[in-house]
Design brief:
305 residues; alpha/beta; 11 helices; globular; three-stranded mixed sheet; 16% strand; seven-stranded mixed sheet
């Protein structure tokens, strides 16, 4: 009974948030820029309005870039017309056109592989639809100017460390351990042609930047082959493996920027602090405290102003 009530409450909160997000349709359209920056997202019809809030609130602070979208297969003609009107005719790619090769299919792998193709000639920012930019993003702009990767930290304790710091015996972790923890525990044993010494940070793929000309999908294919052989194909294809791959690539290139958690945060049901610039409303607590709805209201008000 409690779970049923929780689901019902979550649905009511989601509906309330979507009503708030609908006001984004009354905000001015974005003027995209052909300046070597791409803001990239995978979306479907269900998240169209939250995505517009995420995209427009980030662009208002960046004042850079154009939009590229990977359609998860559910965008309608009406959705695409709305995107054209608000984001300056973004490039929309079909998920069915993505060849996954030696990488898993599903679990956002098509998104990552498309991103790795786009970064050949552009700085690509991966942006999730459940995010809101609430203030200046100077660290992101500096990373773009310096040609450095960046990532949202997975948590306040996220740091760049030698891969050996994550090592553990997979057998001792247990059969039910999340694929991210399992894969991180075996990073030392996967080569994939990556440079040494190896480092890794537990970042969040919901907001990450990839400098132009870095590793391409060849690294993802090689890493996936080794991970599948080591962990098992079924385990490697579980949700969360793509985030590990994203973190591996970001942290293997030059000196990545780990965005300061005090200003770029994941929402874990704690009130966002004053001065926060970017909030990722992760699924578990997305609609708790009405924080997502409040941030959406503030972002839309700023866009109108």
């Amino acid at each position: 009974m409690s779970k049923f009530m929780d689901r019902g409450l979550r649905k009511l909160r989601e509906l309330r948030h979507n009503r708030a997000a609908k006001a984004v349709l009354a905000t001015p359209p974005v003027q995209p820029r052909e300046d070597g920056v791409i803001v990239f997202s995978m979306i479907g019809t269900r998240v169209l309005l939250p995505y517009l809030v995420a995209a427009k609130s980030l662009h208002a602070q960046l004042q850079r870039g154009r939009f590229v979208i990977l359609d998860d297969g559910t965008l309608t003609h009406a959705d695409k017309a709305v995107l054209d009107r608000h984001l300056g005719k973004p490039e929309i790619l079909a998920i069915a056109s993505v060849e996954t090769g030696d990488c898993p299919s599903g679990g956002c792998w098509e998104r990552l592989l498309t991103l790795l193709a786009l970064r050949r000639d552009a700085y690509v920012i991966q942006l999730d639809s459940d995010t809101v930019t609430t203030g200046p993003v100077d660290e992101v702009l500096e990373a773009i100017e310096q040609g450095r990767n960046f990532t949202l930290r997975g948590g306040v304790d996220c740091e760049l460390q030698p891969v050996g710091c994550y090592a553990a015996d997979p057998e001792q972790l247990g059969r039910d351990v999340h694929i991210q923890l399992l894969a991180e525990a075996t990073l030392e044993r996967i080569d994939a042609g990556l440079p040494h010494p190896r480092r890794y940070a537990r970042g969040c793929a919901g907001f990450a930047g990839f400098a132009p000309g870095g590793f391409d999908r060849g690294v993802a294919d090689a890493f996936s082959r080794e991970a599948s052989a080591l962990l098992g194909r079924d385990r490697w294809r579980q949700w969360g493996s793509e985030q590990v791959m994203s973190n591996v690539i970001i942290t293997a290139e030059d000196e990545p920027v780990l965005l300061p958690y005090a200003r770029y945060m994941n929402f874990w049901n704690e009130a966002p602090p004053a001065g926060v610039s970017f909030i990722h409303f992760v699924g578990t607590y997305r609609y708790h405290r009405d924080a997502y709805t409040d941030a959406t209201h503030r972002a839309i008000a700023a866009l109108r102003a």
